[in-house]
Amino acid sequence: MPDTMKQLVLTREEARKIILYAAGLSRAGQFGKGREAVYKLIDHLGHVQIDANYTVERAHHHSIAARVPDYKREWLEELQADGRIFEFFISDSGFIPMYDYRYSLCVKEGFAKSRKPVTQAEINLMERVLDRVAREGPLMLKDFDYDREVASSGWWDWRPSKIALERLYLDGRLMCTRGKDFHKVYDLPVNIVPNDIDTTKPTPEEFARYIIRRALGSLGIAGAKEMAWRAHYVKNNVVKKELEKMAAEGAVIPVTIKGLTIAQQYILPAYKNKKIRLSGDVFILSPFDVLNVFRHRLRDFFDFDYQIECFVPEPKRRYGYFSLPVLAGDTFVARMDSKADRKQRVLTIHNLHFEKVKLSKTQISKITDAIKAFARFNQCTDIDIKRSNNREYVKNIKQALAE
Questions:
Q1: Over the stretch 72-117, which tens digit does the pLDDT of each residue have?
Q2: Which of 111, 226, 260, 345 is 20 to 30 A removed from 232 (C-alpha atoms)?
Q3: What would you report as the CA-atom Rg of the chain, rounded to the nearest whole angstrom?
Q4: pTM for this one?
Q5: Pick from 209, 208, 230: which is nearest to 219 by CA?
Q6: 280-314, pLDDT tens digit by residue?
């Protein structure tokens, strides 16, 4: 970064406000209520990550419900059916505003270029699959004959027809929607992308600037490393080069954070003088929430050392298999390892671990209300807290839950 380029200086408190506003977590209902609020949220973030883990409600529903009061899962399906959002990859699989469709073409090209050579038999199978979808309309994996010839060796050892469908999906010849059962329904892009959507492939520079704007829009404050990660499926992308140009143009603003020795950070001009007030509301967040994607940012800006432990061997877990961060205002106050038993309608909190922060009665009440709302969202009527490191806090929560 040239020495002549003026730096905006922020305190960590000021930085946290920008980060939380960008994440849609400055207050409950920041985007309003109802189905339109779901679209406004996805439009603002640019990408809501999908994950299949069903220990509690899946990540995409969880991230939306944390921000949209009284969220209904069918709203997401309706937005797909209306052609306002679509599913594909940025850095991860997620829901994206449909008008960003053209930028997905760069990622699809990246997948196609990075694919290992395929045999003629695999090419023939892909062509047969594509032909069937073209002739018959939307199809699911179950609509294809079971064509596995050897036993599966694990989760990612897919049968040939599944591999063909996913290859066609990743390179853009097919798209997908999802129903209530989370299963993919594959269809031709012409049947999913509205006619008025721009489908021209961006230049490398346009794609890079899109990534930069979207990353800073949802992260609030970020460095080149985080922005480049958003484009990692596009090899030899020019994100870092365009970032320098945008900084020189004033399209992004370099930021220094008092007391932090970290890589150069940036914000969008729109966030520079924005008056942001945090409500102090409590949010129980998904491990795959946009706020939690980069662990180093949680440490740097929030003094919160977080790791999702479902990927950690059981003997090494400290907080639990699926520990959820609990945010109050601009402070992470707890981690809640929970599991939803939807048949018995019980949310079991295996471990409610509080951070080393002093909580007021009002904050404890808000945490209790957040737990109640989270249970309802997970279709549970009962809450069972098994363990905690703070007897006083949990006693108060249990008493309030019993009322």
A1: 999 999 999 999 999 999 999 999 999 999 999 999 999 999 999 9
A2: 260
A3: 22
A4: 0.95
A5: 230
A6: 999 999 999 999 999 999 999 999 999 999 999 99
